[in-house]
Every structure is written in structure tokens, then in C-alpha cells.
Write a structure and sequence with these properties.
Layout lengths: L7 E5 L2 E5 L12 E3 L1 H10 L6 H11 L4 H17 L6
Antiparallel strand pairs: 1-2, 2-3
Helix pairs in contact: 2-3
């Protein structure tokens, strides 16, 4: 899978937001806010193909988290990314 092209991760203070810079008017009802860990994964995988397993391994390597917790978190995150249209089709 891939992250949808054209979307940009922006940091405002300690918050991470996904925006679509190609849209003339930003619809503030459709802004996606990310945790630090999700933003880290976004930056790591934004330009390449990846699997949920690759993201889980990267999360375990970057943070002190158990594999079963990382697996659940990545699966939940990817479901949200899909629902918000952040993944390429």
C-alpha cells in the first residue's frame, strides 16, 4: 500500500496535521490530526510502498512498544487512514 500522493504533513507546535495543498480552500471539517508515532510512520513511509508488518516493525524499533501492541495500533491507524482517504487506491 501507499500513502496518497499530494498530501502534506504539517507540524504546528506539538500537533501534526495532514493537509491537501492542492485544494484552493481547506475544508477544516476534514483535517486529520496525528499522534507523534503516527507522524513518524507517515514521514518514514510517505514516499514508498509498505505493509502493515513493515510499519509494525518500524514502530517497535523506534519506540519501546511490544509487538502485539504495535500491531494493534498500526491496524487501527491504517483503518483510520483508509476511512479518511489518506491511502492511495
Amino acid at each position: 500500500m501507499r500513502i496518497k500522493s499530494g498530501l502534506k504533513l504539517r507540524q504546528i507546535d506539538n500537533d501534526y496535521l495532514i493537509v491537501d495543498p492542492d485544494k484552493e480552500n481547506i475544508d477544516f471539517t476534514h483535517i486529520y490530526q496525528m499522534s507523534n508515532a503516527a507522524a513518524y510512520l507517515w514521514k518514514t513511509f510517505c514516499e514508498k510502498e509498505f505493509t502493515a508488518q513493515m510499519m509494525t516493525e518500524e514502530l517497535c524499533n523506534a519506540y519501546d512498544v511490544a509487538p502485539e501492541v504495535a500491531t494493534r495500533d498500526v491496524e487501527d491507524m491504517l483503518l483510520q487512514w483508509k476511512a479518511f482517504g489518506l491511502l492511495a487506491k
